[in-house]
Model the fold of this input.
Amino acid sequence: MVEPALSGCRILVVEDEYLIADDITRALVDAGAEVLGPVASAADAAKIIAEDGRIDAAILDINLRDGAVFPAADTLAERNIPFAFATGYEEWSLPERFQARPILEKPFNASNITALVAPLTIIRND
Amino acid sequence: MTYSAEGQIAPLGTSIDVDDILGLRAQQDAVTELRHRTRNLMAVVQVATARKLRRVSTPEQLGCCIDDRLSALARVQRLLSRRETGTRIPFDLLLRELLSAHVELARPEEKGKINLDGPENVPLRSATVQTFVLALHELATNADKYGAMSNRVDWLSIAWGVVQHEAQGPRSRVDGREQDVSGVGAAGAPAEGGGYGRELIERALPYQLGARATYDFEPDGIHCTIEVPALAELETGE
Done:
């Protein structure tokens, strides 16, 4: 049997639109991942990053109800945790320090998510 | 000559240049924001459609649901774009707009069936409107099919206002109730329509908006309450 692409990976999901958060979660779980969250606010994201031991990768919506996700992204970068943005914003509107990060543009479908996250976790495991 | 923000007289030429630049920047920001909202809306439509697809058994059912939902979203977009940036959509306007897709509110016999009760100026934060609308739309659709607005009539009562909580500050509250729906209508209702509307209310609104929500099948019909932090408290998030 083929091992699911994200088997055993712990992935943080930050997305404030419920339906989209649910969709991303479903796709990741189907691919064998364990989802941390999903959470809808930057504050809740910061809390998970501070409290949850191992995070293998993160998917971050940019515009949250309590502000931009960038402080959480900075913390992830400091801890060398790979992440991708899932957003309707285009690349050029990201702060420069994030412009090399992978972006999943909305609207997207579930299989894109696994395809995007799987390479991230491989980089992490190397 | 013109006045600067501090009230000092500033040379006209300079201030025009600055205004131009600020104007352009604001325009760029607006375009970025509009693109973002559009894509987000597309993503919501995409997910909602995919979910519906898993639940329906015939293409006709799917077509009908998608049509209704897109119309509801389109009505809201129209409301959102009609209003100046920064102004809020009052809850009663949204509710009337939405209900008007289901019933003729002005007809006397409908007036007797639907009781709307609340102040005119309870503002909704624009970010909350979309989820609110989808939830209300599902409820109205459900009432259409099974409850207060179907032929098993009686009435639908929706009350709203701002309530004060000692600990959490002001919250906007909506209380919707079907009354005297005879027989099996209400009890038989938790079909797929109820499932989706109920999920939006019980799960999406709390997740997305920090709302507290209840959704119950009472002997008379569905009773649902939604409380979201009132605008003043959320304002900083925008």
Q: What stands out?
A: The helical segments of chain A are 18-30, 42-51, 70-78, 110-125. DSSP finds four helices and seven strands in chain A. Chain A has a mean pLDDT of 85.
